[in-house]
Amino acid sequence: MFDEFAAIKKRIKQREKVLKAWADMKPNDKTRIQQDMQKDHQSVLLKEAQVTGDERQQIFSLRREIEEQEQRFQQADGIAFQKRVKKLAPKPNIVKNTILAFLVGGAICMLGQIIYDLFANSGLTEKNASAATAAALVFGGAFLTGLGVYDVLGKFAGAGSIVPITGFANSVAASALEFKREGFIYGVGARLFTVAGPVIVYGTVVSIFIGLIYYLVR
Amino acid sequence: MADKKVGKQTLQFACAPAITSWASIVGPMEGQGPLKEYFDMVLEDNLAPGEQSWEKTEQKLMQHSMELALEKVKILPGDLDFYFAGDLLNQIITANFTARFLSIPFIGLYGACSTLAEGLCMGSIFLDGGFAEKVGVSASSHHDTAERQLRFPTEQGSQRPLTAQWTVTGAGSYVLQKTGTGIVITHATIGKIQDLGESNANNMGTAMAPAACDTIITHLQDLGRKIHDYDLIITGDLGEVGLAVLKELLGSKGYATDRVSDCGVLIYEPQQDVHSGGSGCGCSAVVLNYLLDEMLYKKKYYRIFFVGTGALLSPTSSFQGESIPGIAHGVVLEYR
């Protein structure tokens, strides 16, 4: 066992007490404590490098303790800072944004309903009319993305234009446009679903679970 | 003994290298801003004429700004001893390809948006140390190349938060000479990384403000100066939010803040809808053009402290839950 072990353990405990008063400490004292930590860290690391087996494992856990403490000290400044600056950041206008999202989102859904009714009245079955409506909306979203309109809409509507299926089309078309310059394989092919990917993955996963539940309770 | 170092972090240049030439090229949006007449060239589109990609456009911006700066003093790239340049893209590709064209000894820099200040520091050190007679310094950013690397595809219809900043499309280049009159660099302060736990990539001003504050205070302490020894203390790209945080930090430590400003606040009009202001290497790189013009031709400022601020943001570390480290380097510019 290396001689300093107990002494370093003791110093870690002592420093932990200082942590609470950290925010009010003088810069020089802060520097001194940081240097103490660095000194312990380095000496323990050197010892760790020199030994093997169980002894290394023991010294590793001591180093880990020091590193975690260093991290806590680093974060101590941050907590007070975050509290102070929170009030300086401008707040979004939630009422206005919600109303805009509601109106635009609602308009897109109403448009979907109109398209659906047109398809249904022209003789498509209920199932086919739904699929055709989704396809039409996806085409519309992608088309407006290509024209450079959808991102302008998104700026005002927020969730209102992201949540409907047109937003999904926008995220795929935007990625396709963006990565076209890296070629069709490493660009478009590989990056097409960078934004929409998570939606597809977790949409599929959730649908499996819903299917299982449906199967069990039916 | 380090006889050119004063205090903890400040370098004092014996020869006071001169900035003898500068040039800037900006994108269309910056060309509609309040500083438009100070830029040498304004692009009409986010793509440069004849270029197929934003990355190639940014590379041309940097190269052409350096060539313009060289042409103003009638020298060629080969007359420069070294070239210091950097940008925001992975592996600093803009700077690398520009250095390939210029074909001069090249030191690539990455300091995020503090790159220009970092380059001016490094260039001055080379000149003052007697290792070079003339050096070139460039920094650039492009809104679309940065957005797609760091955030979302540009056509993605998402709402930017009010704390978000707009990456400047622009490049600025500077020619530094060992001797010269006009604008000289007398001191430089190399900053320490400050990370107070800000992890929001749409609030980089707040992430950088502590670093700017630390560098400014350390600089004043190192030299025994006061804020009012400067006509202007200007940070790189804190934006409205970051500048408010910086003023709050400086004010709470008892420093005056009336002469503290920020390049990211100056570059756009409020009605340009950029939210918190400009950001990116290009922001301070092109706004410094305006500041130097004001110093040299209008005698508006005699001594300024130019503090480049960098949010060292990486999407990878952000997704792994890390906060954004901030850094700030400062140079003292004097009109003589």
Using brief descriptors, characterize the structure shown.
heterodimer, A: 218 residues, mainly alpha, 2 domains, 10 helices, 0% strand, elongated, B: 336 residues, alpha/beta, Peroxisomal Thiolase, Chain A, domain 1, 13-stranded mixed β-sheet, two-stranded parallel ribbon, 9 helices, 15 strands, 33% helix
Structure description:
The complex is a heterodimer of chains A (218) and B (336). The longest helix of chain A has 34 residues, at 53-86. With 218 residues, chain A is an all-alpha fold. Chain A has two domains: 5-86; 94-217, no CATH class. Helix content of chain A is 81%, strand content 0%. Chain B has 336 residues and is α/β, with parallel strands linked by helices. Helix content of chain B is 33%, strand content 23%. Chain B contains nine helices and 15 strands. Chain B has helices at residues 54-72, 93-102, 115-128, 143-150, 204-223, 239-252, 263-266, 281-297, 315-319, and strands at residues 5-6, 10-12, 18-26, 41-42, 82-86, 106-108, 134-141, 166-167, 170-177, 183-189, 232-235, 260-262, 278-279, 303-311, 326-335. In chain B, strands 1, 2, 3, 4, 5, 6, 7, 9, 10, 11, 12, 14 and 15 form a 13-stranded mixed β-sheet that branches. In chain B, helix 1 packs across helix 2 (93-102) and helix 5 crosses helix 6 (239-252). The radius of gyration of chain B is 18 Å and the shape is globular. The mean pLDDT of chain B is 95. The chains are: A mainly alpha (218), B alpha/beta (336). The interface between A and B is medium-sized, with 39 and 31 residues.
